[in-house]
Amino acid sequence: MSVVLVAGATMLARSLNKLENQDFGYQVPGRVVVDMNNPPASYTLPQLEALYRQLEEQLNRLPGVQGSGLALYNPLTNNWGELIMVAGHPPGKMHEESGASWDRVSANYLQNFGMPILRGRAFTAADNETTAPVAIVNEAFVKRFFKSGEDPLDQHFGLDLPELAGTFRIVGVIRDAKFAGWGLGRPARPMFYVPLAQNVDYHHELMKKIELRSHFIGGIMLVTNISPGALEALLTRMLADLDPNLTINSIRTMRQQVELSFDQERAVASLAGLFGIVALVLAAVGLYGVTAYTVAQRTNEIGIRMALGADRPKIVQLILRGAFKRVLIGLILGLPLAIGAGRLISAQLYGVSAWDPVALSVAAVALAICSFFAAIIPANRAASVSPMNALRIE
Hints:
Layout (H helix, E strand, L loop, with lengths): L1 H19 L10 E6 L8 H17 L3 E7 L8 E7 L12 E7 L3 H4 L4 E4 L13 E5 H7 L10 E4 L8 E7 L16 E5 L9 H9 L5 E6 L3 H15 L5 E6 H8 L1 H35 L1 H9 L4 H33 L12 H27 L3 H6 L2
Parallel strand pairs: 4-9, 6-8
Antiparallel strand pairs: 1-10, 1-11, 2-10, 3-4, 3-7, 5-8, 6-9, 7-8
Helix pairs in contact: 1-8, 1-10, 1-11, 2-6, 8-10, 8-11, 10-11
């Protein structure tokens, strides 16, 4: 059982490590993400546009900040999704895989987050309220909504309603990135990005509300190596001077945000590790007891061996050999069970197989080390017995 628990705990720990250090599609080091309260709902779009221009200018002036960006939400904090209607394609249906996530971002947000444009162009300051709506889509979006060989650039799509299929023109294809705060062990979802400075003039009431709501941003991203603690005071003062309604909810490095997203997985791995340690201790205690009892039963035999010339190392070796025979039997039984347990938790593993050789090796070595220390104490005791005293014991 200890082999099963230790192997399972190691698989979960390795899976967590791979999850946290996977390629998310954007730069994690040197990025700080800020969650702030949305601007008041009474603000008009022109007021918001002026506020965001001033906000970006102020952010870029902060000491130690090399770049910034604004977004409806930052990665791993939220997820907005809509049904996609592509011009010239059959209308998508709710029960099909016809949806995509989306985010509204400022002109430099994607570039400053280290998200490369693979085809087409990035957003620019020219993508504003005076120009036709444009969008940048990711690779998963292209795979889901366009046929192989079909060029997505300059194609049009819209949201939810077939008559809106011509709303956005695709101007770029960006690398896949994981923005939703769930499903991080799966490939990136189809996603598109629209400029913060642009506004779609919908006639449908629900779409008007969605469009307006998406302009009330809650995310700030900073390119900096300054700690969040040092930045918080600067940001709080700057936001208060700019607009007292803008307040900070949280400020973290992107690495901290990633770690926060895996709290549940970390708790499960820690609990499994605790059970594994307890199982190893119990196995060691059990082996110590069995070995000590065996030594007591064989005291007379040990005395005869020593009287016939067996030295101390040979007696220790004799006792350890018997103990490790039991360990070997445990491994023969435990390793197949550990592989079976790995298959049971395979849905929870990322980048780790059910028969992960590292996890199985760690379990075997851990059991061997604990068994050695458990057996060496009675083995040394046996080797230190006087042959004359041992022969007197019946």
